[in-house]
Write a structure and sequence with these properties.
Elements lengths: L6 E4 L16 E7 L3 H12 L6 E8 L5 H5 L7 E6 L5 H11 L4 E4 L5 E2 L3 H11 L3 E11 L5 E5 L5 H7 L12 E3 H7 L9 H9 L4 E13 L11 H17 L6 H11 L9 H19 L7 H17 L3 H5 L2 H20 L4 H12 L3
Parallel strand pairs: 1-4, 2-3, 2-5, 3-4, 7-10
Antiparallel strand pairs: 5-9, 6-10, 7-8, 7-9
Helix pairs in contact: 8-9, 9-10, 10-11, 11-13, 13-14
Length: about 375
C-alpha cells in the first residue's frame, strides 16, 4: 500500500524515518485513534482546514480493528505524522508516545471523534503567545450526539482563580479544546496511575505551576456516543475518579470517612441512583452543607463558581430523585437565603422546556456574586 507523503510508523520502527512535513511546527496536534472510523475523517479534516497552518498533526492509531487505518492512509498532507501501534497499548501510553515525538512549541489536542472549529488553533495560539504566564488554555464547546446534532452548550469557568478552585471538585476543560505549552506536557505527561480520568489528572498536575484559562469562544464540538469512554461510568473509571477525589479532599484539608468519600464521589458524578437509599440521601445533605461551609472558610475556594457548582449538583440529584421537598425544606435555604434561591430558580428554569425560562435561569445564576 502506498502511504503518499505521510509518515506511517509501527511501534517497532518509530525511529526509522523522518517525515517531510514542516520541520519546525509551532503547534503539534495530537489525535489518538481507536475504532472511531465513523467519525475520523471529520476530525482530521477539521484540523487540516484550520486557519492556522503551522502545525504537525500526529495521528496515533492504537491498534484499531475497524478501517481507521485505511482512512488515515487516504491523506497526503505532509503535516501528518502517522504512528500505528501493532496492538492496543491504551490511551495513556499512546498519548505519551505523541508527547515524546512532538516538535511544536504547543501541544493541541483533538480526540478522533470530535471536531475543531476552523479558527480554534489560531485564536488559542495568539492567546498563548500574548500571555506567557498561562501554560494551558481551553475553550467553550458544544456537545453533539452521534449524528452531529448539538445537544448542549458548555461554558466552563474562564478565570484562572475560578478554574484552580473548580479543579478540586471536577474537570473544567474539554480535552479536545486544550492547548498546553510543550515543556509542561513533557514534564507532567499522562499518568499511568490514572488510566481513566487521565486527562483530569493531567490538568491537576499542571495546575501546580501555571495559570489556566478557558477562552470565551466555541473551539470544538465534543461528541457523545455509546462507544466513547466518557459515555458510561464503569467500575474502573469510578475507582480512578474516587482516588482523585480522595487526593483533592486531602489537599483542601477537609476531613472525611470512607463512607463520606463514597457520598462525595457519587455526588460529583450525578449518580442519583446511589441516593435512592434514604440514609445515603440524608448523608448527602449533611455533606453538601459541610462542603459549602468548608469552602466558605478557604479564601481560595470561597468563590461564587464553587457555591454554584455544589448547589447545581445538589439540585440535580434532588430533581432526578423527585425529592423537590428537600430542595425547599433544608437548612441551606435558611443559611444562604437569596443566593440559594437564585441558584434554585436557575436550575428550575434550566430544566424547563421553555426557551425564555431557560434564559431567565442563566441570567439568575450569572447574577450571583
Amino acid at each position: 500500500m502506498k502511504y503518499h507523503n505521510i509518515l506511517m510508523l509501527t511501534h517497532s520502527d518509530m525511529s526509522a524515518r523522518n517525515h517531510n512535513a514542516l520541520t519546525s511546527p509551532l503547534v503539534t496536534v495530537m489525535m489518538a485513534v481507536y475504532n472511531t472510523a465513523e467519525y475520523l475523517r471529520l476530525a482530521v479534516d477539521s484540523i487540516l482546514g484550520q486557519s492556522f497552518s503551522q502545525f504537525e498533526l500526529i495521528i496515533i492509531n492504537d491498534g484499531s480493528t475497524d478501517n481507521s487505518h485505511d482512512i488515515i492512509c487516504t491523506y497526503s498532507d505532509e503535516r501528518i505524522v502517522y504512528i500505528r501501534n501493532d496492538v492496543n497499548l491504551g490511551i495513556v501510553k499512546s498519548r505519551n508516545m505523541v508527547i515524546d515525538r512532538m516538535k511544536g512549541k504547543y501541544l493541541a489536542i483533538l480526540d478522533s471523534d470530535d471536531v475543531s472549529l476552523q479558527d480554534r488553533l489560531e485564536r488559542q495560539f495568539d492567546f498563548m503567545e500574548a500571555n506567557p504566564e498561562y501554560g494551558l488554555s481551553g475553550t467553550f464547546f458544544n456537545v453533539i450526539n452521534a449524528d452531529g446534532t448539538i445537544i448542549d452548550r458548555i461554558r466552563f469557568p474562564q478565570d484562572d482563580a475560578d478554574i484552580q478552585a473548580y479543579l478540586h471538585f471536577g474537570n473544567c476543560f474539554c480535552h479536545s479544546s486544550v492547548m498546553v505549552r510543550s515543556e509542561l506536557a513533557k514534564k507532567y505527561r499522562y499518568s499511568d496511575d490514572n488510566l481513566l480520568g487521565e486527562d483530569y489528572h493531567f490538568f491537576i498536575d499542571i495546575s501546580s505551576e501555571t495559570k489556566f484559562a478557558n477562552l470565551p469562544f466555541i473551539g470544538c464540538y465534543y461528541r457523545v456516543h455509546k462507544r466513547n469512554v466518557s459515555y458510561q461510568m464503569n467500575g474502573e473509571m469510578y475507582a480512578s475518579i474516587k482516588e482523585i477525589n480522595r487526593q483533592n479532599l486531602l489537599k483542601l484539608q477537609i476531613p472525611f470517612t470512607e463512607k463520606q468519600l463514597e457520598i462525595h464521589s457519587h455526588f460529583l458524578i450525578f449518580n442519583a441512583d446511589y441516593f435512592s437509599d434514604e440514609d445515603n440521601f440524608n448523608q448527602l445533605e449533611d455533606w453538601v452543607k459541610m462542603l459549602i461551609a468548608a469552602t466558605k472558610e478557604d479564601p481560595k475556594m470561597d468563590r461564587p463558581v464553587i457555591f454554584k457548582f455544589l448547589l447545581h449538583r445538589w439540585f440535580v440529584i434532588c430533581y432526578k430523585k423527585r425529592m423537590i421537598q428537600r430542595v425547599l425544606f433544608t437548612n441551606l435555604l435558611f443559611t444562604y437565603k437569596m443566593k440559594y434561591i437564585s441558584v434554585m430558580l436557575a436550575e428550575a428554569y434550566d430544566h424547563s422546556t421553555n426557551k425564555y425560562l431557560k434564559k431567565l435561569g442563566r441570567a439568575a445564576v450569572l447574577s450571583i456574586k
